[in-house]
Specification:
This protein is of the alpha+beta class. It has 5 helices and 5 strands; from the N terminus they run H-E-H-H-H-E-E-E-E-H. Helices cover about 45% and strands about 30% of the residues. The strands form 2 sheets. The chain has a 3-stranded antiparallel beta sheet. A two-stranded antiparallel ribbon has the order 3-4. A hairpin with a 5-residue loop joins strand 3 and strand 4. The longest helix is centred in the middle third of the chain and has 21 residues. The relative contact order is 0.21.
Length: about 140
Amino acid sequence: MGKRKREYANQLKEARKDVAFARLVNVPSSPRKMRLVADMVRGVEVFKALGILHYSNKEAAAKVEKLLRSAIANWEQKNEKKAESGELCISRIYVDCAPMLKRLRTAPQGRGYRIRKRSNHVTLYVDSINNAKNEEA
């Protein structure tokens, strides 16, 4: 690794020291379906978001709920205290596309239809509510 890349990597590492986040990679569902769930909880207090996700009918909600629990645990680990109700919120959550599996399905008259099995990456950032309000202002 060159000097420039190493310095940039160290800057990123320093910036992430005080940020609690969790990533979920290669989830085998389409990004569009996952974004519907992400939009439900964006900017919401974490324990309220856990309730929303727990009682949602969507399959992606269970995966995001597990991811949120992981992000809360990461925040508790970095700040060395337990998360209390009304203290944390989901500051950022976004869904990116992951590599697509391309398959062929047989079709009439010797043809083949393409099937694209999509997957996604989810990144969720958790922050205390007063810090999130300061960043918005």
